[in-house]
Amino acid sequence: MSALSALPFLKPVHLRSPRSSPGGQRRHTLPASEFRCLSPEDAVSVFEIEREAFISVSGDCPLHLDEIRHFLNLCPELSLGWFEEGRLVAFIIGSLWDQERLSQAALTLHEPQGSAVHIHVLAVHRTVRQQGKGSILMWRYLQYLRCLPFARRALLMCEPFLVPFYQKCGFEALGPCQVTVGDLAFVEMQHPVRGHAFMRRNSGC
Questions:
Q1: Which one of the listed residues 74, 109, 162, 174 is annotated catalytic?
Q2: Is residue 16 part of a domain?
Q3: Is 144 a catalytic residue?
Q4: Which of 25, 59, 69, 175 has its C-alpha lying 20 to 30 A from 39's C-alpha?
Q5: 168-173: which pairs have CB atoms within 8 A and are 24 or more residues apart?
Q6: Is 145 a known active-site residue?
């Protein structure tokens, strides 16, 4: 059984298309929305969305194209993309971390033995912002992490103005992050993730 088929909240959402069959019955369907893990082939689309979302705000991107490819090769199972009619509209990229708090090394490393999922970036395409897609995608991502047996918590760092958004997603602030990027300072945030056994009993994972 594939990971997708085992996780109902990642299955495509279908809408009926008005296209009719030869007999006049409307039977054709199109996947209006699909959530799936990303692959290295998605890297360019990911980078285009990220570059537009972040450069105008902070002047730089959390992940450059080679870093996106790096993580999507090492740990594609820790990414999640939202596709509408085949087009990527929002995404999250994560990797594993094996320490209590994030450090500068967490920006580039994937620690396979870690139990903390470091969320590097969440971005939404400019044409579909202000529609709540970031919150929905984060909710689905956290539900997905709860079905991974090794995941115990999610960590991220963000600029102070984004703290209220992540608090609404269930994250708590841990205080100033040790990581700096140029002149930017960040707040580190955490979300507990329950283990696989709990979710299997309670949500069919």
A1: 109
A2: no
A3: no
A4: 59
A5: 168/135, 169/135, 169/138, 169/139, 169/142, 170/142
A6: no
Catalytic residue list contains 109: yes
Neighbours of 10 (CB within 10 A): 20
| Residue pLDDT tens, the chain, 205 long | 444 444 545 554 443 334 444 454 544 454 588 999 999 999 999 999 999 988 766 667 889 999 999 999 999 999 999 999 999 999 999 999 999 999 999 999 999 999 999 999 999 999 999 999 999 999 999 999 999 999 999 999 999 999 999 999 999 999 999 998 888 899 999 999 975 444 444 445 5
Q: Give the domain extent around 152.
A: 33-202
* Number of domains comprising the chain: 1
Q: Catalytic one among 10, 155, 166, 191?
A: 166
Q: Answer yes or no: 2 catalytic.
A: no
Q: Is residue 49 part of a domain?
A: yes
Of residues 79, 80, 95, 141, which has the active-site annotation? 95
Which CATH number characterizes residue 187's domain? 3.40.630.30
Asked if residue 44 belongs to a domain, the reply is yes
Residue 26 is assigned to a structural domain of this protein: no
141 SS3 class: helix
Q: pTM for this structure?
A: 0.82
**Catalytic: 120?**
yes
